């Protein structure tokens, strides 16, 4: 039989790092619950679920743009999908990952509950994936989003590309404005 009493077992740095990361995550979660940010993120998600060309609180410029140009139902559905992508994209840029994830999850849950067939079409479709690729692969994100939008609308015209660019830019601006209304604690 071997005497292994002199063998020492060391924790790897990875284990220490993982524990530290978990404690930091738990602390961030606790802080966001205590300061009200978690509740605000869920309220924000509910608000963002109502983004559509028919919404009255989009802002005058965006309302004029999407209502005057969106006659075709397929294009209108693509506008809504793009607007939801913009909400998700802007949340990730403006909030910490935990709060962005909470707001995004709430947004999609509300859409799933209220607009099940639309939710099924966007969750099973490729549109959001094309927008993610456009963001990842291009420096001029708005232009790339416009091109993806035109492709998804199956209309390769400058007008449709410009529409996609403008919907992206204006919606991201509107979502930033909405986020600021919630006054998240830092």
User: Class by helix and strand content?
Assistant: mainly alpha
* Count of separate structural domains: 1
Q: List the helices and strands in order.
A: HHHHHHHHH
- The fraction of residues in strands falls at under 5%
Question: What is the overall silhouette?
Answer: globular
Taking the alpha carbons of the first and last residues, their distance comes to: 59 Å
Q: How many DSSP helices?
A: 9
What kind of oligomer do you see? single chain
What number is the mean pLDDT? 86
Characterize the largest beta sheet: strand count, sense, and whether it forms a barrel: none
Percentage of residues in helical conformation? over 70%
Radius of gyration: 21 Å
Unreliable runs:
none
Number of strands: 0
Provide a descriptive summary of the structure in words.
The model has no long low-confidence stretch (mean pLDDT 86). Helices cover 75% and strands 0% of the residues. The chain has one domain (13-181). It contains nine helices and no strands. The chain has 186 residues and is mainly α. Helix 4 crosses helix 9 and helix 5 packs across helix 6. The termini are far apart.
Brief overview:
The protein is an all-alpha fold and 186 residues long. 75% of the residues lie in helices and 0% in strands. The chain has helices at 13-34, 37-48, 60-69, 73-94, 97-114, 116-124, 127-137, 141-152, 158-181.
What's the helix and strand layout?
Layout: H1 13-34, H2 37-48, H3 60-69, H4 73-94, H5 97-114, H6 116-124, H7 127-137, H8 141-152, H9 158-181
